[in-house]
Design a protein that fits this description.
about 90 residues, alpha/beta, 3 helices, about 10% strand, SIS_dom_sf, carbohydrate derivative binding, SIS domain-containing protein
Length: about 90
């Protein structure tokens, strides 16, 4: 799962560690999930599922993206279907 504001970009040489991890995950057949903003970058291009956080304000892209990412991941990890049955 990738949580990133821009999603990595080969051409612009940004967040190259994310780009490399995504390429490796694709190579080994892993499922790729992403929660990103801006244009989604490399994550949006290669992810199996990619949630795009909309750009609400050009002056606050990072705080909005990271705030929404936190809400989404908390929703995922607290989903009742994931709780251990005793």
């Amino acid at each position: 799962m990738v949580l990133s504001v821009g999603g990595g970009n080969k051409e612009k040489n940004t967040s190259t560690n994310i780009v490399s991890a995504l390429d490796y995950a694709k190579k080994v057949g892993a499922t790729i999930l992403g929660i990103v903003s801006r244009d989604g970058g490399h994550t949006k291009k290669v992810a199996d599922v990619c949630i795009m956080v909309p750009v609400i304000s050009d002056t606050a892209i990072t705080p909005y993206a990271e705030g929404f990412q936190a809400v989404i991941w908390h929703g995922i990890v607290n989903y009742p279907g994931f709780k251990e049955k005793k």
